[in-house]
Amino acid sequence: MNDRLIDPADIAFQLDEVLDIDSLMLFPRFAGQDRADYDAILGTARTIATEKFLNHYAKSDREEPQLRDGSVVLPPEIAEGVKAFHDAGFAGAHHDEELGGLQLPWTVVQAAFAYFQAANIATAAYPFLTIAAANLIEAHGSKAQKERYLGRMISGDFFGTMALSEPHAGSSLSDIRTTARPREDGTYAIKGGKMWTSGGEHEMGRNIVHMLLARIEGAPAGIKGLSLFIVPRYRLDADGNPGEPNDVALAGLNHKMGYRGTVNTVMNFGDNDGCIGELVGEPNKGLSYMFHMMNEARIGVGMGAGMLAYAGYRESLAYARERQQGRPPGEKDPAAPQIPLIGHADVRRMLAIQKAVAEGTLALGLLCARWVDERQWAPEKSARNEAHLKLEIVTPVLKSWFSDAALRANEAAIQILGGYGYTRDFAVEQIYRDNRLNPIHEGANAIQALDLLGRKVALQDGAALKAFGWEISKTLSESRKDFPDEYHALGQAWTRLSAVTETLLQRQADHGAAASLAPAQSYIDAFGNIVMAWIWLKQAVAASKAGRAYIGETFRKGKIETCRFVFRWELPKAVLACAQLETLGDGEAYPAEDAF
Amino acid sequence: MNDRLIDPADIAFQLDEVLDIDSLMLFPRFAGQDRADYDAILGTARTIATEKFLNHYAKSDREEPQLRDGSVVLPPEIAEGVKAFHDAGFAGAHHDEELGGLQLPWTVVQAAFAYFQAANIATAAYPFLTIAAANLIEAHGSKAQKERYLGRMISGDFFGTMALSEPHAGSSLSDIRTTARPREDGTYAIKGGKMWTSGGEHEMGRNIVHMLLARIEGAPAGIKGLSLFIVPRYRLDADGNPGEPNDVALAGLNHKMGYRGTVNTVMNFGDNDGCIGELVGEPNKGLSYMFHMMNEARIGVGMGAGMLAYAGYRESLAYARERQQGRPPGEKDPAAPQIPLIGHADVRRMLAIQKAVAEGTLALGLLCARWVDERQWAPEKSARNEAHLKLEIVTPVLKSWFSDAALRANEAAIQILGGYGYTRDFAVEQIYRDNRLNPIHEGANAIQALDLLGRKVALQDGAALKAFGWEISKTLSESRKDFPDEYHALGQAWTRLSAVTETLLQRQADHGAAASLAPAQSYIDAFGNIVMAWIWLKQAVAASKAGRAYIGETFRKGKIETCRFVFRWELPKAVLACAQLETLGDGEAYPAEDAF
């Protein structure tokens, strides 16, 4: 098997030792499921990811989507990969059995998806977007909408998109201008242009279902006037099959730095006044519905970024073991044999950074997936609420801090390969380019920082922050005996961050949002660093206790030494950021506009 | 003029206020030169950079060098740009007047080159490589070699390359295998393969002069057995014109992530035993000669990286002023007009990072150029020696720390442009890709860190470090009155770093090179951060005193606020790194080989 993909032992370790998947299987929703079934699913994912996703990784970058005779042409391997994904049932794996799904935990599904993300994230985007759109219809659509769309999207017969951004409104969804005019039959005439729509047009399925935000005529300005619509490429006929074209036109393709296999489009809806949309749920609640989808998407972006870090890590680790270059410092004999790159301390530093980010994101992303399962399926309401609160805190951190860290990891992969890493003969430069999107899309990272500091930490009088703090406390108490230094360091850092949070919230009360939110990036830097240290301590504790066969000495040592690496070199940066935030006072955090 | 290029006021500020170019003009070498002449040269550079380099920036990335019928085909605009550069006399600008040069200070030449680096670094690489090769011949070649090659290289009739690396020997030059067999006429038969040779083949000039490292048969193993050769693509006839082919064969092109306009080649020398090279200087001294060139090249790499940061800064600054997006935090009225991106605090943070790196590198690079002038032309020997020592310290820092920082700057530029920044319709993604080479070539950044900690700080019993420390002291005493906080912070940081240096040198004495050099990256991180703070304090002092007309309030405020930004957010990282290095003890800095 290819070295690029996630280590299956790591997946098993996360499920069994870190996440205690056995306890999740006690939820009524998952009754009767078997741990061995999960392994079978994961094995299938790994096989398809290798044979049908990884196989065209370079090709779909080189031969990016093209417009020919008005149609989007993709390398055929993309459709083959997507078909294999759908045929194996991955798009419906988490859905109810009565919908034809497997009713698997989202945790297991996300673990399976990690293989696809590491293998070829641009091809994976097609089914992932479709799954996200289907989840949105399932959560907020009418019974009729579910009947008409859901099954076909799960099977891969129809695809899905998110049509939010417009050319003048990227981060500022408040300024969306696309309009929806009520028609007599209860549907709406949609009119407007959308930008950055991934998967907006292609010929893989029989239809494309755009989940589109628009403003019903007369609706309030701003985000409170946005409604959510289902806008299919082809209108459905009486039998639910694609019929007449729905006046959805491709206006152009965006040509990107990476992530090229995912066609990215400029779309026009209703240029000829013939575009019909179906309202989802109630009017003017579109953005709150969309956030349902976006929060999952943000977890997905963080995970995807981390799995690209994983891919780069595995590529550069293999290279570092193979490539003979140089001699140890102090070796004066030029006739002494060269040593592998991994023998050089700084190469191990660059590998450790990557391992920390890659495996740390896997651990955190799967933990978030477990919380998604708990939020929806935990028997007790208090557990559901607690999971919800923790997700509110961690989602922006996973999306933002970990996607930034993943770029650092990918840069280290390129650096380890040196000149070779800078060529297109090796995957690492493409992995970086693909990954560069993640800090931008689904809410640019600065937006995540504002979300964390401006909304989440104060949510329900700090209940979300407390719920997350409780998770840290649990890990601390588990670590006290075997990891006393880390126990103290993390405890102190969390206390410090909590104090800084108070200071910033007070500053907001005293001086307003602009002053308190200006250094939001520094705050999320500190927060993310602490989350990273915590998720590694959690893994180290699990590794030091675990006795399963797949946990060999190298595996165990890797987890524990990487934890120590994170605590030695990374966590102190969080403490520094706290100090900087504390001493900032009420002055300007950054140079003023007229200083540029 | 295009916003991309360096701000001419910044160049003038550096020359007049920071570098005191007037005092340099007192050197006998530059007697009779006029400050206005320098401005004319700089104006010409800016015009050619805009009209003949910037014009094909995207094109030479899109249409990268190709091999057709055995020849390298470049977009014709590259040759036009290079020709304009040579025709304007830039390649000989620093050479003796009797050689047809202008005898200008290297400082002024480097300031002119900054425009070309910001406009199109891949096109600039051709004349820059030729200049470096010519400088090497001038420094170490015989009189006959100078007569045969130098004039033609200055005019752009011949081009030059550096042919060092081999497929199995990138960082480890010790392992070069290319051989040189003495021939009866005193020349050598060259045989071997070279890798990563930039500009190794093209059709722009009448000849290409490879400055090649090879091992004379029977020479010692390792770097002490390497000799330097001139190996022309075509042998020179009696008149010095290109004649017979010299058995130099193009074996292939490397396809890179960026920097694509510079053709990068795999070269075979002497496949048919017909490749003749001329020894430069003495046998087995090749690497020491090459280091003459490489040290200049390393300054050039640092400067180039910084000028790409400058380009990205200017692109994203223009965008941030123009693009209207979102409203201030706390603004609840969705009908309120949007504000430009620069109105958002975090965008200003990302602009400030870029400004700090871009203008900081310009200031440091030109200061290094001044030291190059002093090293060669200062009337007193002590001044020449002092300049030499300071360059020994700062060169690896400029090459390494500033090229890493420049990537962070370019990432910020992409982030400011958001989705647009991720497309190839805007320059910032290409600027990043071009820049990604800089931490790799001319000695990977890890090598620079080893060079600084393992060689430079201990050089001549610490004389180099002391000479550089003296520069910091001078700036400190100038800053005490107007910048008391910065005065204290930088003084403390430098004291701390000096103590850490002692600790690490002692560790080397006690435990050997491997233990002491392992955290070399952390050491250069601290060092570079302090250099950054120092160069900004130097600029702030100059800006607060300067009274010239081109220094308006915005310019002055920009320098001073960026200095404060660096001291507030960046310098403390150096202090943290020092603390980490101090507490490291003798344990392993990073996970062991068997932890991966």
From TrEMBL, chains A, B:
Cofactor: FAD
Acyl-CoA dehydrogenase/oxidase N-terminal domain location: 38-157
Residue span, Acyl-CoA oxidase/dehydrogenase middle domain: 162-264
A single GO molecular function term of this UniProt record: flavin adenine dinucleotide binding
Positions of the Acetyl-CoA dehydrogenase-like C-terminal domain: 471-583
Entry keyword Acetylation: no
Annotated keywords: FAD, Flavoprotein, Oxidoreductase
Any Pfam family hit: Acyl-CoA_dh_1
Membership in a protein family: Belongs to the acyl-CoA dehydrogenase family.
Protein name as catalogued: Acyl-CoA dehydrogenase
Species whose genome carries this gene: Hwanghaeella grinnelliae
